């Protein structure tokens, strides 16, 4: 069970460091489209949170802290929900959200911490722009403002479709195991500096379960973004690696 939000006095300048606002202007506000915006907004922030985390788990919860009349003006505020999460995680997520949108506005380049899920949800921001209802969609903080443009969807389509597959290996620490929607493990790769999803067959389940928290070598079919990061691997072989302290000895 997840903990209640952890209240801390750690902010950058003031409380605005953990706040992110969405602003929608237009002549008409369909409820269905507003629900799509909120779902996409929440999902993008959660997926960035997972990518930043060393364990691949969500460590921050977002709540509505302010709603203004007139156009839709809604401010979400971050709260840390786990004691082992670094105190500046909310600021990291907001910074990644800001820089990521700036990148995909102008270029078909995958931003740091944006996986396929967050990119597809960010694409919805662009697709919902319509002069008949949601004429303008924007995001802001106290010191930053961004207006969504329709070319974001085009750039995201280009990013998502550019990937290739090949056989190879990944080394790293096994940080998570899940049996929901298929058996998979999360390996924190020091080379990639991220947690890579590894899907594995039934016969390797016991080996994976017993290796939680340990260093592993996995071999299989890797799916990777063209000129970018690895997405996942269909594992065919798992080997336990020695810890760094076990790999050498000192002669006396």
Task: Give the topology, please.
Layout lengths: L18 E7 L5 H22 L7 E9 L3 E9 L8 H18 L9 H12 L8 E5 L4 E3 L3 H11 L1 E16 L5 E6 L4 E6 L5 H6 L4 E11 L4 E11 L12
Parallel strand pairs: 8-10
Antiparallel strand pairs: 1-3, 1-4, 2-3, 4-5, 6-7, 6-9, 7-8, 9-10
Helix pairs in contact: 1-2, 1-3, 2-4, 3-4
Given as residue ranges, the uncertain stretches (5+ residues, pLDDT < 50) are: 7-13, 247-252
Kindly name the structural category.
Answer: alpha+beta
Please summarize the sheet with the most strands: 5 strands, antiparallel
What is the overall shape? elongated
Number of domains: 2
Radius of gyration over all CA atoms, rounded: 21 Å
- The first-to-last residue Cα distance is 50 Å
Write a concise synopsis of the structure shown.
This protein has 252 residues and is an alpha+beta fold. The chain has helices spanning 31-52, 89-106, 116-127, 151-161, 205-210, and strands at residues 19-25, 60-68, 72-80, 136-140, 145-147, 163-178, 184-189, 194-199, 215-225, 230-240.
Describe this structure in words.
The protein is an alpha+beta fold. It has two domains: 15-161, no CATH class; 163-246, Nucleic acid-binding proteins (OB fold (Dihydrolipoamide Acetyltransferase, E2P), Beta Barrel). It contains five helices and ten strands. It has helices at residues 31-52, 89-106, 116-127, 151-161, 205-210; strands at residues 19-25, 60-68, 72-80, 136-140, 145-147, 163-178, 184-189, 194-199, 215-225, 230-240. It has a five-stranded antiparallel beta sheet with strand order 2-3-1-4-5, with helices on one face. Strands 6-7-8-10-9 form a five-stranded mixed barrel. Helix 2 crosses helix 4. It is elongated, with a radius of gyration of 21 Å. Residues 7-13 and 247-252 have low confidence and may be disordered.
């Amino acid at each position: 069970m997840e903990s209640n939000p952890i209240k801390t006095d750690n902010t950058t300048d003031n409380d605005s460091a953990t706040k992110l606002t969405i602003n929608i202007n237009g002549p008409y506000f369909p409820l269905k489209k507003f629900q799509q915006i909120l779902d996409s907004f929440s999902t993008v922030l959660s997926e960035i949170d997972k990518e930043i985390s060393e364990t691949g788990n969500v460590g921050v919860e977002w709540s509505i802290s302010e709603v203004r009349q007139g156009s839709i003006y809604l401010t979400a505020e971050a709260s840390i929900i786990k004691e082992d999460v670094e105190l500046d995680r909310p600021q990291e997520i907001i910074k990644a959200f800001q820089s990521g949108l700036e990148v995909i506005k102008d270029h078909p380049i995958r931003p740091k911490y944006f996986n396929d899920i967050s990119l597809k949800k960010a694409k919805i921001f662009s697709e919902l722009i319509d002069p008949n209802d949601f004429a303008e969609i924007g995001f802001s903080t106290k010191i930053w403002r961004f207006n969504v443009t329709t070319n974001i969807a085009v750039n995201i389509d280009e990013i998502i479709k550019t990937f290739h597959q090949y056989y190879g290996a990944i080394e790293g620490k096994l940080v998570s195991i899940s049996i929901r929607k298929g058996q998979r493990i999360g390996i924190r790769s020091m080379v990639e500096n991220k947690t890579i999803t590894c899907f594995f067959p039934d016969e390797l389940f016991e080996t994976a379960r017993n290796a939680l928290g340990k260093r592993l070598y996995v071999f299989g079919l890797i799916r990777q973004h063209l000129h970018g990061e690895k997405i996942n691997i269909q594992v065919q072989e798992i080997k336990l690696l020695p810890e760094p302290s076990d790999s050498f000895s000192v002669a006396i």
